Amino acid sequence: MARARRTLIALTALLTLAAGVPGTPATAAPPAAAAPSGTAAPGAERWSADLAVAGGDDVNVTWRAGRLRLTDPHPAARTRPAAASGPVAEGILLSAPRALDRPATRVRARLAARTGDGGTATAQVRGWRSGRWTEWRDAAEAVFGQPVTRVQARVVLTAPGPAAQATVTGLTLAADQAAPTAALPTAARTYRAYATRIGLVGGVTANGHTVGVRDHFAALPSRRGLAPRGTGDYTVKVCTTGGSRCEYAPVWDVGPWNTRDDWWNPPAVRENWKDLPQGLPEAQAAYQDGYHGGRDQFGRTVRNPAGLDLADGTFTDGLRLTDNAWVDVTLLWTGGGARAIVGSGPLNLRTGAGTAHPSRGLAATSAQVPVQCYVTGQRIAGTYRTTTRWYRLVGGDYVSHAYLSSVYGGTVPRC
Q1: Dihedrals phi, psi of 50, to nearest 5 degrees
Q2: CATH no. for 339-408
Q3: Structure confidence at residue 143 (pLDDT)
């Protein structure tokens, strides 16, 4: 019976690039390997992803005897997303980005894996375009619509216990031109959602970050917006409902409650719960309206309507919350425009171009903030430079250029 439950998976997916997403370009690219997919179009660029575990961005996976597998298949604080606390162990292998020979609008991915007894293995892909990464997409359902110049793949393994099987022997990809292009959105999506505090100091997030005291990051209940460790490829702006305090925080964990609920996407794109309106988290629908029997994807009774989690520093210092609360959250990768990367934070968001102006919040280290224009202000000697340049962000706050590691994604004019 155990053998009958095990399946050999060949996932072939048409991926067409759709929403604009911010991100930091990686510099490394894997060597090309001839491993064509049988369904690839003639003339497609083909390669095999390197599944060797290098450390760094790889979380709870190992390559042994020609197979990628979970290092520790026991569901525990160190092997599952800290914010979700789901009853499954998880591991992620992140491949190096591949620079394409020519821009492509679709990628077909084939994953060779064995699963059984509740274990899962999935391949996900994202593309680099207009100075930022698209969202991650599962190979079986991702759809894109703009040319990309780089492609990055990752493999996600899950297991409800040590008896489950989830191993991968290969991942091949092919990129070509297929779908018509679509205009990138300029305004990022903003929704009101219920935020809870992560806590869990010492736990490990889905991207391998160890939660610290007064830490600054956020969690969303889908891996589609999960940034690699130490990056702000996917950053949210979270504000109190009155707008008095805000923080820009990188998304470094998956949760709360669910791990496949990208509630900010339209139903046609959403991973699960496609009958829910765009902007409504499954946990909120379950808690308020008894949706899905009042339970999350793991069958647990939902005890609050949370659509995102906030690390202690973001919760307490950034927003100055004293209890779980409704907040306004902007998913910055769903819009366009120039971005600045906070290299040294948390950085104060000032109401003007100098430290005498009040702080209205924080921008966490690695967060990517939307830059509108620049002004000359107080001279600041910071981590990266001494400068009088200050950037006005979309929304009206100011940050000093002295603490920004880079600015990219378009020309920034003088205000």
Answers
A1: -80, 115
A2: 2.30.30
A3: 64
